[in-house]
Amino acid sequence: MSYTFVLFLILLLLSNELLLKKNYFLDRIEHSKHKLFINDNIPTTGGLYLLFFLLFFYSDKNFIIFLYLFLIYLIGLSADRLKNFSPKFRLFLQIIITFLFIENTETFIFDVRIDAINYLIDNYKIISIFFTIFCFIVLVNGTNFIDGNNLNAIGYYIIVYSIIYYLSKKFGLKLDLNFNLNIILFLSTLYLLNFLNKTQLGDSGSYLLSFFSAFYTIEFINNNNFVSPYFAVLILWYPCFENLFSILRKFYQKKSISSADNYHLHHCIYSFLKRKNFKSPNNLTGFIINSVNFISLIIGMNYFNSTKYLTLIILINILVYIVIYNYLIKQNLRKKFF
């Protein structure tokens, strides 16, 4: 760990205390139903800190990359600060920025281990573009969903980067190990501050963290052909499935897919814990979800180059999610939800 990085973390902690005292960057729970568990006195500074961290410590000093990271951060910041920032317009901006980003950085998904689809991706660039945009957007908005309670999103990405680091170091995969270790330590610092209710990602932080992580994971897979692309699906499955499941659920219920509600998995777990009178149900919810995902990803890590086993683990995760979700919905709806 470099002295520069240590100094950065110290300045982060000091600046966060100052922002807390001055009441800057405070979130507003009335802006979205997803913010139900958020304390009004917690600043949404996680994204700002992440922006500075990437600016100073990400090894690829590419202006184009940082420009688009800043733009995606601004969309999230606008969502944090503006009460009537249309979700549909927000999605439109995300798609435009993602399209320009993948075009300018040539960040494409090339291999899905299905010959027919690979043929289309190789021969029709537009299909590769649409598919890559879809993956970015699903992850970005899914991460914003799971950030609805403390520890959940930050803890999940700590696990993701830790697994990438471990595999790369053990098998000599192509990766900037120093940066990867730094982002684990940085996110761990945010995790502690989030646990203490001193900072949170907010929309700005969740957008930026997931957008960069999508780019980082695609680059990791493209640079290491030995790793199955389904390993990327596994390590990012939870926020992606949270988003897709929410869309399907609202479509089935004949609701607008852009409407916010409190029926995501973390909401259900929180409500269940609260009714059972557990202490700190907000933090506990994130810890429980992270723990279950940690076990799943640790198992999957042993099959990082086996598409067959990775697919099986992903399907098991989805099945477990649906079973637990249905159980909690039935339990929670016996009483008034929240």
Structural notes for this entry:
- By secondary structure, the protein is mainly alpha-helical.
- It has one domain.
- It is 72% helix and 0% strand.
- The protein contains 14 helices and no strands.
- Helix 3 packs antiparallel against helix 4 and helix 5 crosses helix 6.
- The protein is globular and about 55 Å long.
- It starts with a helix and ends in a 6-residue tail after the last helix.
Strand fraction equals under 5%
Radius of gyration: 19 Å
Number of domains: 1
DSSP summary, beta strand count: 0
What structural keywords apply?
about 350 residues
Give a quick rundown of the structure.
The chain is an all-alpha fold and 338 residues long. It contains 14 helices and no strands.
Break the fold down into its secondary structure elements and pairings.
Blueprint: H1 3-22, H2 46-57, H3 63-81, H4 87-105, H5 115-123, H6 125-146, H7 152-171, H8 177-195, H9 202-223, H10 229-235, H11 237-252, H12 265-275, H13 281-301, H14 307-332
Helix pairs in contact: 2-3, 2-8, 2-9, 3-4, 3-9, 4-6, 5-6, 6-9, 6-11, 7-8, 7-13, 10-14, 12-13, 12-14
